Each structure stands twice: as structure tokens, then as C-alpha cells.
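Handoff note, outgoing to incoming analyst
You'll be picking up this chain. Sequence as last confirmed:
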Amino acid sequence: MADVAIPAPRSAGHFRSLKPLLDESRVVLAGGFLIILALIAIFAPWIAPKSPLEQDLMMASLPPIGFEGYEPGYYLGTDDLGRDVLSRLIFGARIALTVALVAATLAGLVGSLLGLASGWYRGWTDRIVSRLVDIWMSFPPVLLSVLLVAVLGSGLSSVIIAIAIIDWTRFSRVVRAETLAQGGLDYVTAAESIGFSRRHILWREILPNVAPVIIALLSLEMGIAVIVEAILSFVGLSISSDAPTWGGMVAQGRQVLHESWWVLVFPLCSLFATVLAFNLLGNGLRKALDPVMRR
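Most recent structure output, in case you need it:
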């Protein structure tokens, strides 16, 4: 009786494709933290114990749990206006992650497309894009972001646009360099000898090999976007001052540091942990997705 080949279960194939990611501890730890943070942000109205905008001067400057004077229900204390710090942190995560995802994606899309075109087609395309990148990067990024938001007006969309306009250059330079390196390898020469068009080689051969760099850089850019949004909130150029942003909480906590240290410490810890997670995730993804680095 002839042997019958039994195909491997589809789930097993999916697991094997995810194995390099699961073997990288930085991806697992940082990705797990960011997934939990994203779920908290999505379900913020149901998770937050209080309204982030609700003020109660009778409950002002209450300490967090474990300290003398703690009031049940206010687990991380309150600010000088009686607003619940934990609730404001949770809703602040919503704003931070929204800016990180949308702004980094826009910057990555524009910068990667220009970098691919510059590194592959070269010639006048490379000269124009390279000169534009040099000019754009000559401006201090934080100063330029403040200027752009001041011109565009405050608001979440203005912050996102400003970050995307500033940070596309980082993607363009890195992707251009990687495209130039990939363009000189043997597989590209083989594809050209077979007769594939330059457009086909760029999108079907080079882009998949550049994708790990783009993905890693996208994760790193999300961390930078969180920092930029916090800076703009700190100076009052993000959304309204009453909105629960981590940068705005830092600015407020700085003024009441000696009386209510928790108003400053908790948003700073949230910023640090989130940016660190994005950085670890980016480095881990680069190592897990790049076959050369896995050797």
C-alpha cells in the first residue's frame, strides 16, 4: 500500500514562522508589555477607576496606596486639583500610543518610499532626496516640532503631522543605505540577468530584505514619538492643558514636587517604561527578523 503524505497542521507552520520572535526575549518581554499597555488604553473608560477630568478639591494631593493619608479608591493618589492620578495615566496612555502609532507609521511610509527610490534608482532621484534630507536634518528636531505645532495650531492631529514631517528623514537615510547595500548583492544581479524589471526587483526582491530594518526602525520611532509628544505637552503645545497627557502631568508635577511627588514620578516612570519597551522591541525585532543577525 502506497504511503500517503499527511500535510503538517497549518498551526504548526504558523508556530514555526513565529519561533524566531518567541525565541528573542526582548521581543517577548517588550511586546508583552506594549500589548498590555495597548489593551489598557483601548479599554480605558472601563478600567480607569475615576474620570480623568473630575476635580474634587476636598481630595486634593492625596498620597498613593501604602502611604499615610491614603484614601481608598485613589490607588496612585491625586493631584493638587483632586484628579485621580491613575485614571489620568491610563487615559494618557491612549494619547501617547495613538501619537506613536499614527505618527511613526506616516513618517515610516514617506521616508521608506523615498529611501527605496533614492537607493535603487540613484541618479537625480538620489541627489534630490539626499539634499532634501540634509536640509531638513539641519534644523533642530525639537525646535522644528515646536515651530510646526505653533503654526498648525494645538491639537492631536497637529502633533502627529509635526512628528511625521520631522522624522521621515530618519527612515529615508537608513532605508537608502540598506537599499544601496542590497543592490550590490548577488541575488539582485541574478534577478537582473533573468530579465526582471527594476520595479519588480525593488518590490519583490529588495523590499523583503529591507523590511526587517524598516520594522525595527518603526518601533524605535514610536518611542521617539512618545517623547516628542510628551515634550510638546510639557510646554503646552499638544492638546488642551486639562487633557490627561503624560507630558502635561510631568509639567504639573514639577510645580508641586515637594508636596505631591507622586504626580511627577508616576508619569515619568510610564514614559521611561514605554520608551524603553519600544527600543527593546525594535532591537529584538531586528535580530529576530534578520537572518544574518540570527546566525
